[in-house]
Amino acid sequence: AVLKKRLVKLVVNFLFYFRTDEAEPIGALLLEQCRIIKEEENVFSISFIEEPERKYCFECDSKEQCQEWIEALKRASYEFMRRSLIFYRNEIQKMTGKDPLEQYGISEEARFQLGAHKQ
Amino acid sequence: MKLNERSLVFYATCNSPADNAGFLYKRGERHTAYHRRWFVLKGNMLFYFEERESREPVGVIVLEGCTVELCDSAEEFAFAIRFGGAKSRTYVLAAESQAAMESWVKSLSRASFDYMRLVVRELEKQLEEMRWGPDGGCRGCRQLPGSWKPKPLGPERSPERLPALPAILPKENGCAVWNNTPGVDRPPNTSSCSGDDGEVNSRPPPLPPRRRASSSEAGSAGAAAAESLSTFCRLHEQYGREVARLRQDWLERRRGPRP
């Protein structure tokens, strides 16, 4: 496989990649239902649950950079963020007896319910 | 621009929770006729299908940097999703009832990743203040390798609370937000957190490590250490169960029939 140098930008739950001299991205990966794995030294891969053999591999300049990206990408999904929120909400509720989302008027939002709206 | 379409389709149709779903009328781009479509909101992605039973969406709207507002239309219960940018399209949708319209406007206006992230940061901050005191006594401890990136916490410690529709901060967790103002730097920065494993991207969120291992803080750990250890053990057990369950789910999904 040929390695091509790309500028890579993580923006919300998308990983955009650009040719190094272009302003518009060539493509993007939506980072939901995916798995981030450290491959060999300085290399990580992104694969998606429905097609786990297909790996998008990225080689970094250093193992620190590689580690940084792995950690950032693991937290990049909306679903991860949602689980964090539900977790913190639950913890605060257990500690104070109050729902911290009430003050923002969003306690009833489907997206913040604790597993209630799993299909 | 290429997109991992197959993965998008999977995300749209898999059994991960939908934050809203229902029929809406969508106004065409060129011709102003409305077409009834089945809409599914997951996270910051609004998918629409030709029919409820369709196996693939016909389109998706990414809900970052948009505003959702009621709009004037011959069609009843109409609302619009507007994006900034000269070439951006405005999506005009219409619900089938007042209640449905209100429900959609509410869920769409809070669907962005940026919004979710803001709320998470706020709750994190509250939890931190509750556990460790409002002055964040061990703020020095947070500067550990493998901690959450401590920088954003400084400016955020101001007493202002989230307004009803929060403003978007330029950077969170070291990742650029979608809708940056021009001139703000958007490097592909990352937050530095520990955890070098090949787990599925569905672990429960780790709390930032506190009062741990920093040799300079060993003296001041004191009584808090005992508390943090029992808290840690409890959390460790919780995470363990959650991780085991999620892993099981994931393995079953891999092996099982497609949804």
UniProtKB/TrEMBL annotation, chain A:
Q: Which Gene3D superfamilies match?
A: Pleckstrin-homology domain (PH domain)/Phosphotyrosine-binding domain (PTB) (2.30.29.30)
Highest rank taxon of the organism: Eukaryota
**May I have one GO cellular component term?**
trans-Golgi network
Q: Where is the PH domain?
A: 1-78
PROSITE patterns, per the entry = PH_DOMAIN
Q: Which Pfam families match?
A: PH
Identify the InterPro entries for this entry: Boi1/Boi2-like, PH-like_dom_sf, PH_domain
Q: Cite the SMART domains for this sequence.
A: PH
Tell me a GO biological process for this protein.
Answer: endosome organization
SUPFAM superfamilies referenced in this protein's UniProt entry, alphabetically? PH domain-like (SSF50729)
Write down what this protein is called: Pleckstrin homology domain-containing family J member 1
Phylogenetic placement of the source organism: Eukaryota, Metazoa, Chordata, Craniata, Vertebrata
